[in-house]
Amino acid sequence: MQFSKSLISSELQTFEQKFAQAVKSQTPSLDRIMKYIIKRKGKQLRPMFVFLSAKLHGDVNESTYRAAALVEILHTATLVHDDVVDESLERRGFFSINALWKNKIAVLVGDYLLSKGLLLSTESGDFKHLQILSEAVKQMSEGELLQMEKARNLNLKEDIYFEIIRSKTASLLSSACAAGAWSTSNDEGVTERMKKFGEKTGIAFQIKDDLFDYGSDDIGKPTGNDLKEKKLTLPLIYTLNNINSAEKRKIIYIVKNQNRDQEKIKYVLQKVVETGGIEYAAKKMVEYRDEALNILFEFPDTDVRKGLEELVRYTTDRKY
């Protein structure tokens, strides 16, 4: 990812300052939480996609910085709310907001971030950015609710799985690419193609996350965390749809009722491997990655395009 970062290093530095300013609050306790959030930021993949998508079609401008800030603000808001919903006490190795300040404050912090994102766009007249990102937030909510609904009976078909991850995970990355492209091109056709590019990349990214739960030579022992949380991932869905009914009932019973039993979870993980669920998911991941690259390769061959290609490959080659 070093080459990609080198292409936008100055933009990322400027972005950090602008993002900190965008979420600043006059309320001392809220400002303290904002500083905590800024300190524990992740890899900033989404802002990177915004800047590279913008640079692919023109010169980065103030509208691009606002698009990157909006994407990161909305992403952060959804993570804060997700931690409340999932009752998670950790995020990226740090205490979550709800762990330190409790649920009420965490919900209000998420709401505050959402409002700051809205104001950032409306005050600058970035209505296209707002439209793109509002659609993503709507899809993320719908995807989360659809996943909760389907998780009850653990009877998930592959098309529903892809609908869930397209909404839950891929929509925000898709919006990052679309908003970045719009900020420098103001071209509906280009923006739509970049949106599709981001969606394919986001789906590949999520399948890679699914595979982490089953372990590999690269990441060590399988964790089974998704199974413990009753999350239906692509390797498991493939397995459930390709084994006999008795085995299917047994696995569903384990995931529903014995998901804290290490031996039982080990049995499910082994069954997924034996059935070819890992290979199948890896194959689908590469298919989506290649579809994203095919869209990208429609644009002129430049260093920026190479940077985006590196980022796409990172999503499927990463070790964590």
Features:
Farnesyl Diphosphate Synthase; two-stranded antiparallel sheet; mainly alpha; 15 helices; 1% strand; 320 residues
Q: How many beta-strand segments?
A: 2
Residue windows where pLDDT falls under 50 for at least 5 positions: 217-221
What is the fold named in CATH at topology level?
A: Farnesyl Diphosphate Synthase
Secondary-structure element order, N to C: HHHHHEEHHHHHHHHHH
Major sheet strand order = 1-2
The rounded Rg comes to 20 Å
Sheet-strand content, in percent, reads: under 5%
CATH superfamily: Farnesyl Diphosphate Synthase
User: If helices are DSSP runs of H or I spanning 4 or more residues, what is the number of helices?
Assistant: 15
How is the biggest beta sheet arranged?
A: 2 strands, antiparallel
Distance between the termini: 13 Å
Q: Work out the count of structural domains.
A: 1
Helical content class: over 70%
Oligomer state equals: single chain
The CATH architecture comes to: Orthogonal Bundle
Structural class: mainly alpha
Give the overall average pLDDT. 89
- What top-tier CATH class fits best? Mainly Alpha
What is the 3D shape? globular
In short:
The chain has 320 residues and is an all-alpha fold. It contains 15 helices and two strands.
Overview of the molecule:
By secondary structure, this protein is mainly alpha-helical. It has helices at 2-7, 9-22, 28-39, 45-55, 62-86, 97-124, 127-151, 158-185, 188-212, 225-228, 234-240, 245-257, 262-275, 277-296, 303-317; strands at 90-91, 94-95. A two-stranded antiparallel sheet has the order 1-2. A hairpin with a 2-residue loop joins strand 1 and strand 2. The model is unreliable at 217-221 (pLDDT under 50).
